[in-house]
Amino acid sequence: MSLEKTYPKEVKQILSKYPPEQKRSAVMPLLYLAQREEGYVNKAAMQDIAKMLDITETEVASIVGFYTLYHDEKAGKYRMQVCTDLPCALRGADEFLNNLCGNLGIKVGETTDDGLVTLEGVMCLAACDKAPMFQTQGPDGIKYHENMTVDRTMELIEALKGVK
Amino acid sequence: MAHVLLRHRDIPDINKLDVYKKNGGIDAFKKAVTKMQPTEVIDVVKASGLRGRGGAGFPTGMKWSFIDNKNWPHYVVANADESEPGTFKDRELMESNPFQFLEGLAIASYAVGATAAYVYLRGEFWQVAAFLDEKIAEMEKAGYLGDNLFGTEYSLKIFTHIGAGAYICGEETALLESLEGKRGQPRVRPPFPPTFGLYGKPTIINNVETFANVPPILANGADWYKSMGTADSAGVKLFSLSGRVRKPGNYELPFGKTFRELIYEYGGGIQEGRPVKAIMPAGASSSLIVVDDKVLDTPMDYATVRTLGADLGSASVIVIDDTVSVDWIINKTIHFFKHESCGKCTPCREGNYWMKHLTERIHSGDGSKADVDLLLNVAKQMQGKCLCALGEFATMAVVTGIERFPQDFKKVVKA
């Protein structure tokens, strides 16, 4: 796999943001690019990025490990990440997540049988006034869904089934 | 009164460049670049009394004056890593009044001689970053960013950079590490960023809201800005109100309004009309304030809130009513800080680990009085020993929760 071959325009644009002698700065945007199709970063992609930026594969892996939005394992097509931090929890986020688990028949951390949705509890997403809320992380990037109910979430999941 | 920062609430289309321009936008940046020396810009910001809106409240103009002019190039970085539980103001500013923020960033860059500026957004703000990219491109096309601005020798480029889910990157040196393509772990300070910042070069870092204050200050003058707020805390502030209020949201108020005004006048009071039990004025990092009438009537500015045994911080006011038990609150906050501790320094890494185990045990009803004492002990051992503020923040709700709400712990521990 080569990011430069698959996404030549994007790679060039990313590298142009940083001074040429500081190209290591591009590691984070390049990892998002590598993760775009499969939803996780595999070893070959980490090797590719390491080579492109003149850093070691271990250094790239340490970035993947440190930041929560990079994944090194395959999950559902969409990660549904529900905020359960204090302000959201004061507005019923824990109950919302529990009910969602019940409706989907899975526990937090698990994936629906059709491989569409992995349900996760995450830290503050800076939308405390619009709880319950979650973000979806999928092929189309990261999207916020605010002031949610279980019914509306189930409708969203139905709609996601139709997305190619 | 018209909004100074949340101008989109008065002028809905202000996120369009022509509308922003028609309403006085870009005039301040143009005036700075064509008519003022960089040091004059810094002097105006100093005189305005503007203090950093990210939480620390450090005088902005003074920070800018610390830039090391013996070492070049200089950088300016906007901290848009908004991740404190309870804070959601910068996102609204960037989404709805983006040009005012970008113009403030541009003015700051001119003031400290930077020709490149970065906006570091938390990874979750992926869509906001794409939106800002569009707005930056529009400014370039209109000649407000790029080479030889307004016919002068000054040039500036602004770039967005997105993180990937790490609260610690809101700490300015961890943010710089992250921007350099490393794990977001804080540096030992000093040296501070104005001497040793991005790529080891002099760098000014401010919060999004801080930058958004700069264009109106330059346009209307320092005295106009100081006429709002209090002697200690000049100007206006965005208050993110959350928790058990009827109308949570962002409210732009001059410093000096009371908690009562914020919660009851703007926030519509408490759900089901219940009484307020506690306030956390600075998000999850905050001390817990026991609420009574005197507290509710306290003016909100940096110095006065401190007299209540808490910091105003980023003014992320989490309101807690009498249905909530404090052992549950600190279980929530410690769950957060344990997850977000970067692991670099031992007191924070190990301290949060043990605090999490203890709060879990206490909250589940399996704890004893000795566990509560031990929890307090661990928190106090962490204080003053961590590399950055995160470790300190983690202890705030624990220490004040146990000391100020002992009855909530007595209720849950085994006899």
Give a quick precis of the structure.
Chain A has helices spanning 3-6, 8-15, 27-35, 43-53, 57-66, 86-89, 93-104, 150-161, and strands spanning 78-83, 117-122, 134-138, 141-145. Chain A has 164 residues and is of the alpha+beta class. Chain B has a 5-stranded mixed β-sheet with strand order 6-5-9-7-8, with helices on both faces.
Tell me what you see in this structure:
The complex is a heterodimer of chains A (164) and B (415). By secondary structure, chain A is of the alpha+beta class. Chain A has 2 domains: 3-66, Arc Repressor Mutant, subunit A (Orthogonal Bundle); 78-161, Glutaredoxin (3-Layer(aba) Sandwich), CATH 3.40.30.10. Chain A is 43% helix and 13% strand. Chain A has a 4-stranded mixed β-sheet with strand order 2-1-3-4, with helices on one face. In chain A, strand 3 (134-138) and strand 4 form a beta hairpin. In chain A, helix 3 (27-35) runs antiparallel to helix 4 (43-53) and helix 4 (43-53) crosses helix 5 (57-66). The longest helix of chain A is centred in the middle third of the chain and has 12 residues, at 93-104. Chain A is elongated and about 50 Å long. With 415 residues, chain B is an alpha/beta fold. Chain B has 3 domains: 7-225, 3-Layer(aba) Sandwich (Rossmann fold), CATH 3.40.50.11540; 236-321, Ubiquitin-like (UB roll); 326-412, NADH-ubiquinone oxidoreductase 51kDa subunit, iron-sulphur binding domain (de novo design (two linked rop proteins), Up-down Bundle). In chain B, 45% of the residues lie in helices and 13% in strands. Chain B contains 18 helices and 9 strands. In chain B, the strands form 2 sheets. Chain B has a 5-stranded mixed β-sheet, with helices on both faces. In chain B, strands 3-2-1-4 form a 4-stranded parallel β-sheet, with helices on both faces. In chain B, helix 14 (326-340) runs antiparallel to helix 15, helix 15 (346-364) packs antiparallel against helix 16 and helix 16 runs antiparallel to helix 17 (389-404). Chain B is globular, with a radius of gyration of 22 Å. Chain B starts with 16 loop residues before the first helix and ends with a helix. The mean pLDDT of chain B is 97. At the A-B interface, helix 3, helix 5, helix 6 and strand 4 of A face strand 3, strand 5, strand 9 and helix 14 of B.
